[in-house]
Structure formats: structure tokens, C-alpha cells
Amino acid sequence: MDKQEYVNLLRKILDDIKHNNNQKENLKKKLYENYGVFRGETQQIINGDIPLKKEMIIRIGMELYFITKIKEINPKGAFSEKEIEKAVSTSLNEDEILQKDLSIENFEKEEFPLVFRRVIKESENKYIVFEYAYRIAELYKRDLLKYNLDITKKYKYVQNKKGILSQSIDINFNLVSEIAESILNSTYDFKPVVLNVLKKPNENFIHYNEDELTLRIDESRIDILNGFHTILAIERALDLNHNIKVKIELEINYLELEEAKIYYNKLLLKGGVN
Q1: What number of other Cβ atoms are within 10 A of residue 178's Cβ?
Q2: Which of 39, 49, 125, 193 gives the lowest tally of CB atoms within 10 Å of its CB?
Q3: Keywords of this protein's UniProt record, alphabetized (predicted)?
Q4: In the predicted model, what is the mean pLDDT of residues 225-241?
């Protein structure tokens, strides 16, 4: 879908919710809570009285997707990941949000079960959420996200003092430094960080609430399939600037080990694994 077709669809859905008080009030509430858009301005938007810039189109489209569950209004169908990330990261009342349950202090206390909000269910075993970069880094720091050498096969052999060889993660420290510098300069083009919750027979670690758009992950193994160097770079950037508040796309899969290996190899073929 091109951007003009998307805007036309957005306009049609806004026209439809004029007559649905529940959806209309929900849109006003969410645009104010997440982006500081006053209720009166949202009503003008619904009425078609004011022109919309690209970032506002994406924000409204995302909220309408959550509210109406209409798949076609998901901005991912018309806008790039970078455009969406920029739009959803720039909140007019960011400080107020950070003082609530999205604070770094609360993330530092995180443990299982993990709860993600405003989650899009793309398929039976794939979920998408835009999450604060520092939360993702904190989950890794707390060892809730792991790097699975059995999946990636990206390791090197390290010899200890006794001469015993063992496998170790092969980290490209130059790449980490380059990404961190780009993050600090606000020039890094974030690609989705891809995770996998290890699925096991007769056990269920993932619980999705379609009404509340929440995803709960019970205690389990969560492996990083893509974005490992990005996470390390976020950690390094945060050490230098604690005020980094960017959101990035987080893809959460729910696959058994062999399925995860196959999916990882598909990511490799696309050339986007870091």
C-alpha cells in the first residue's frame, strides 16, 4: 500500500469512528496519554479540519490499529521501520510517561514474568512491540535475554590459564563502538531486535491478551536471534548518556529450538543479522 492509499484508508476509518463514541473517546485518550495531543485537537483531526503531518499520521494509524484491530491500518504496511520508530519515539509528554511505569528504575527491578504492552500479534508465534531501548538493554544486563551459541554458531575458542579451550561469543567490538556512536548522534537506523522464547512441549510460557494488547512471558529461556551488537551498543551509549529515550521495534517469536535455528538462518540469508 502506498502512502496516499494509507491516508485515504485512515481518513475513512476516522469518518467511521465519528459515530462510535467508545472508539472516539479511546482515540482521544490514547493520543493525549502517549503524545500530548489535546482532546479538542483530536476531535478536529477526526472531523478532518486540520492537515496531518507524516508523524501524526503514523501515530494515529498505530492507535487506530490497537483500537479497531483492522490489520490494514497498521502503519507497517505503508511506512518504513525508521519512519515508524521516529514517530512513536517522539512523545510530547515523554517525561510524564517516564515518571510512571516506564521508568528506568522500574526496569532495573524487572524479573519474570515480563509484561509488554501495546503488542501487535502478527501470527500465532510472532509478536511485535515498540519498546524503549534501555529496557531491552536492561533485560540483557539482568540475564533475562541470552545469546545462544547453539543457534547462532558465532563463537570463538578461548584458552584459559590451564590450557583448556572453551567457546565464547565472538563480539565485534568495533561494530559495537560504531553503533553506540551513531545512537549518541541520533543517526543510527535501528533494525528490529529479534528474540525467541524457547517453546517446549506441554508447557506454555507466552500469554497474549487480545483485548488489552498485552503479552506476558513466564519464566523461560529468551534468546537473541538478531540485534545482539545493537543491545551491547545501547548499553555503551547509555553509560555515556542516561537520557536516551528512543523506542525500537522488538520482534518476539515463540519457537522450538530447531525452528529457531531455521528462522535464524533465514535472517542470515536476508543479510540483516548483527
Answers
A1: 14
A2: 49
A3: Plasmid
A4: 95
Rounded to two decimals, what is the model's pTM? 0.76
For 74, 99, 135, 137, 142, the CA distances from 238, given in Å and listed in that order, are: 31, 18, 11, 9, 15
* pLDDT tens, position by position, 28-49: 999 988 888 888 889 999 999 9
Partners of 123 in the β-ladder = 126
**HEC sequence for the chain:** CCHHHHHHHHHHHHHHHCCCHHHHHHHHHHHHHHHCCCHHHHHHHHHCCCCCCHHHHHHHHHHHHHHHCCHHHCHHHCCCHHHHHHHHHCCCCHHHHHCCCCCHHHHCCCCCCEEEECCEEEECCEEEEEEEHHHHHHHHHCCCCECCHHHHCCEEEEECCCCCEEEEECCCHHHHHHHHHHHHCCCCCCCCEEEEEECCCCCCCEEEECCCCEEEECCCCEEEEECHHHHHHHHHHHHHCCCCCCEEEEEEEEECHHHHHHHHHHHHHHCCCC
List the grid coordinates of 215: 503479552
Q: How do residues 55-107 score in pLDDT, each as one tens digit?
A: 999 999 999 999 999 999 999 999 998 899 888 876 544 444 444 444 455 55
* Cβ atoms of 24 and 17 closer than 8 Å: yes
